[in-house]
Amino acid sequence: MKFKFGMLAAALALGTAAQAQTKWDLPAAYPATNFHSVNLATFASDVAKATDGKLAITVHPGASLFKAPEIKRAVQGGQAQAGEILLAAYQNEWQMFGADGLPFLATGYDDAMKLYKAQKPILEKKLGEQGMQLLYTVPWPPQGIYSKKAVTSAADLKGSKWRAYSPATSRIAELVGAQPVTVQAAELSQALATGAVEANMTSGATGVDSKLYEHLKFYYDVQAWLPKNAVIVNKRAFDALDKATQDAVLKAAADAETRGWAASQKVNTDTLAVLKANGMAVEPPSATLKADMMKVGDTMLKEWLEKAGPEGQAMLDGYKK
């Protein structure tokens, strides 16, 4: 009887431990090898260690659980407890989401951080109203122009099939006379292989992830903007955690943000070297191309401010202080 009682007690203890563990799903859109995904995996590991396994976060990279455009809605609706989204992709929903996708507003890491600080309070407020909470953000490296053919001015992009992944990248295509084709990161390689895409603006990191050097010949390092990925959490899921677990999540998120921003800078240097090593011409833009793209940026900022209104102007003023 004593043995049976001991077995029962052990089983009950195991059951209690199992019940005590909280499991979260965290969908992401980029390959497991991408620096954002690697950072997410470290974040999840840090949370597990800090909570002694009480909170287990499973990262689902490569759009394997939800496609990129579905992730925000999944987190908002509680289908996933957390997720990683590209903020600029949601500009049509709320203009402020697209502030870091405006060409030539913030072109380097210092300016990108200044912009983030100006954007963060209103971003947190909006996500809160939508039942979510911001955990951290990490920028992509500066965006450049990839093309099959040499580009010395915006006129050289006219008529080309241009990969768009956000409202801003679609608008750039319109302004330079290209044909925007909406393609998410997970489908970019296939789109290039079939000729559906001939040019696009993205980072060196995506260029390496999607092996753009296998299909495109030129990369122009125009450093147009640094769009941010944001890791968000469903507010109910976060509020359901005890205080110690919440604190562990926030600490791991703060560490992930610091680590991610540093990783982005290193990735920028490393991936441009990989593009070169694989035969891609990596060049600065010509003076004409730079001037043409700056005009595009000026037009888009004006249009953005008209839609964003006083809220957008206040954020812009805060950034320019």
UniProtKB/TrEMBL annotation:
Q: Does the keyword Lipid biosynthesis apply?
A: no
Which Pfam families does its entry note?
Answer: DctP
Name the InterPro entries on file.
Answer: DctP_fam, TRAP_DctP_sf
Secretion signal span: 1-20
Provide the alphabetized UniProt keywords: Signal
- Which superkingdom, per the lineage? Bacteria
Q: What is this protein called?
A: TRAP-type C4-dicarboxylate transport system substrate-binding protein
Specify the species.
Hydrogenophaga palleronii
